[in-house]
Design brief:
heterodimer; A: alpha/beta; five-stranded parallel β-sheet; 18 helices; B: alpha/beta; Rossmann fold; 2 domains
């Protein structure tokens, strides 16, 4: 019955399954939504969507599937008397604007264009910006049409219904990969957790208690074990300065997310590419650097290495000794990255540049090759992929 | 069917009503998410009240295990009793401590179970409750008994989104995302909570409140519960409306801001904005 809705959702990438579809049918049969389209929309949403990230997609698919089902509510543009609009236009428009209308092909042409635009907007569901953008200066804006529907002659409460609820796309900013807050990152990073017993003994260890009680000739001897804690160790290398300035906010968010998520977290800074020296405090980077060798010796291969950088530089900085922009490096960047990647069992590179642009910069694909493809975009989704790789 | 509706103290939007009614009718859990302070936990209280059922609350902490909601076997006290020769020791049932879900299943009438902040627990927590929430029954290994629900309880689960929930778990739930209320809804909420508030005070306070929420870069935006606390303070202090009024251009720190802004960075941000606008204006 509503199979095309579920299929549409699935092709839009929403994980709706037959279980949810059956639940929806069951709820319809039980009369939860009764005979209101709005209620059906709410019910379908509660049944088929399980994450607020998908709400926007759902609204789009729903609008597509049930296009035209909604009975005409309120006033339609086509139904507005033309005379009246003309009058309104004369009242509201300055002579210059009237001249502009004439140059656009006269009133009829504008009306047609208006209808076209409205149709186009319904089809693509994002014409809003066009409308809002032109409001005020364009003749359309001055007529008092609103992209959310037609408000002329309607009171507040009707206005809500004139707009189809799902066409409003209220959940637009909750769509995934767009918003990138520390919360999302923390969530993604939690996948990295590994539990081990550590700390104060608070849990009863039954096998050991039984054994020691038996050894004790039956007199009770309780044995405790420590609770399980997250023991993952993370080593973070952060690119600072230069081209990274554009990505400071993202990197800061990542940094605060990892800091609160891991007990064993060490971080070092580098510029453009990790060479033989890194540093801990940016303010004193010129006099307090630490040899990368020392970092390798201090933190064993069980640490998970995450390098954050845009990898956008001249290819020489990677391949040639002495290629660094800041100092003379004895060994080429490739040597150092190889060394790091082979010392740490699990390593990955996070790149704040959007993935589609990676192909445009040669050094990015070079680094990606050096990391054997383990470069991920600095988005919640990218971090998710990275943690999956790191925790394998 | 006794449907769930907005009550005098709780304003539910239509989509929330539909979601709750669907969950009640089909006897499936309802998962509620939303910004902190938008009334997720209160919802369970209201549902219980409107259905006339007792509410069983299970608050989840980071150390909570799924098993604790069903039952716990108190091995230590049994060992102790065995040592002391207590006759109770022969019946293992004496050492089974019932959990919240057991209470709900065995209740003589339908109950509403609130599993609050399910995301606080370990990642595996929801998976461990799959069968229990689906069939509304579980097996007690120690006594070889199956506990099945006499009346399937209405289960309401809240989440703050700190952890992603497993798909298998989500499939069994209805889902509702409580959006931040818009202005008309917020007015109804304020009305429901403080029917005798001065109209001008409420209006100005809402203006300030929505302005505060609009300020870019706030770490924690104030939500409904903060607004209600703040209004209460304003009413107790009996401030003149003028104290809230700010002209369009100037940003002022709202009086008694402690109820609205919950961390010092946000307060600093406001002080800076106020300073800038004073200088500019």
């Amino acid at each position: 019955m509503f199979a095309h809705l579920v299929l549409g959702l699935r092709s839009a990438g929403l994980p709706a399954s037959i279980t949810e579809y059956l639940t929806l049918l069951g709820a319809m049969k039980a009369g939860v939504a009764e005979y209101s389209v709005d209620d059906f929309y709410y019910l379908a949403r509660a049944t088929l969507v399980k994450d607020e990230r998908h709400l926007d997609k759902f609204d789009r698919v729903f609008a597509q599937c049930f296009k035209g089902l909604e009975p005409p509510d309120g006033v339609k543009v086509e139904d507005l008397p033309e005379e009246w609009l003309k009058k309104l236009a004369e009242k509201l428009l300055s002579p210059e604007e009237m001249a502009k209308i004439q140059s656009l092909g006269g009133f009829d042409a504008i009306m047609n264009r208006l209808k076209e635009l409205l149709a186009e907007q319904k089809g693509r569901h994002q014409g809003g910006s066009k409308w809002i953008g032109t409001a005020g200066t364009s003749p359309f804006g001055a007529y008092g049409y609103n992209p959310e529907g037609v408000r002329i002659g309607q009171d507040e409460s009707r206005h809500r219904r004139a707009v189809k609820v799902w066409d409003k796309r209220d959940f637009k900013d909750l769509d995934d990969t767009v918003e990138l807050g520390t919360r999302g990152m923390k969530l993604a990073l939690r996948r990295l957790r590994r539990f081990a017993r550590q700390g104060a003994a608070t849990e009863l260890d039954l096998p050991d208690t039984i054994r020691s009680t038996a050894n004790n000739a039956g007199s009770l001897d309780l044995k405790m074990v420590p609770e399980r804690h997250n023991t993952v160790k993370v080593l973070l290398f952060l690119d600072v300065g230069g081209s990274m300035d554009d990505h400071i906010r993202q990197t800061e968010e990542l940094f605060s997310a990892v800091r609160s998520e891991f007990k064993h977290l060490e971080h070092y800074y580098f510029h453009n590419f990790p060479y033989e020296r890194v540093w801990k405090h940016n303010r004193r980077r010129h006099d307090e650097t630490i040899p990368t060798w020392q970092v390798l010796r201090t933190y064993g291969p069980d640490y998970k290495l995450i390098i954050v950088g845009d990898a956008s530089m001249s290819p020489y900085e990677i391949t040639m000794p002495g290629g660094s922009v800041e100092h003379y490096n004895e060994e080429a960047g490739t040597v150092w990255l190889d060394r790091l990647a082979s010392h740490y069992r699990r390593s990955a590179w996070l790149n704040p540049m959007p993935r589609p642009t990676w192909g445009h910069t040669r050094s990015i694909s070079m680094v990606n090759d050096l990391m054997a493809g383990r470069m991920y975009p600095l988005t919640v989704h990218g971090i998710d992929d990275m943690t999956r790789e790191l925790s394998r | 069917m006794a449907g769930f509706k907005s009550t005098e103290a709780y304003i539910a939007t239509r989509d929330l009503e539909v979601a709750v009614n669907a969950a009640v009718t089909l006897q499936r859990p309802l998962l509620v998410k939303g910004e902190p302070g938008t009334g997720k936990t209160v919802l369970a209280h209201e549902v219980a009240q409107s259905l006339g059922c007792p509410l069983i609350e299970w608050h989840i902490k980071s150390t909570t295990k799924a098993q604790q909601g069903l039952y716990e076997y108190d091995a230590v006290s049994r060992l102790r009793d065995g040592q002391l020769g207590d006759p109770r020791v022969h019946d293992i049932g004496n050492y089974i401590v019932r959990g919240k879900l057991w209470d709900a299943f065995e209740a003589d009438e339908q109950t509403v179970v609130l599993i609050d902040e399910v995301d606080k627990a370990d990642i595996e927590f929801p998976n461990d409750l799959l069968l229990e929430l689906d069939r509304m029954q579980f097996f007690v290994y120690e006594t070889r008994k199956t506990v099945a629900a006499k009346h399937r309880p209405v289960v309401i689960i809240t989440s703050n989104n700190e952890k992603e929930l497993p798909d298998a778990f989500l499939r069994r739930c209805f889902f509702h995302y409580i959006r931040f209320p818009d202005r008309p809804t917020m007015e109804r909420i304020v009305d429901a909570h403080y029917p005798d508030i001065r109209k001008d005070l409420a209006r100005e306070a809402l203006n300030v409140f929505f302005q505060v929420r609009e300020v870019p870069g706030l770490k924690k935006k104030p939500a409904t519960s903060e607004l209600l606390d703040w209004l209460k303070l304003l009413m107790v202090e009996d401030l003149p409306v003028e104290a809230l009024r700010s002209n369009e251009k100037q940003v002022v720190i709202p009086p008694l801001y402690g109820a609205l802004l919950k961390n010092e960075q946000d307060v600093h941000l406001f002080e800076r904005l106020a300073f800038l606008s004073r200088r500019g204006g």
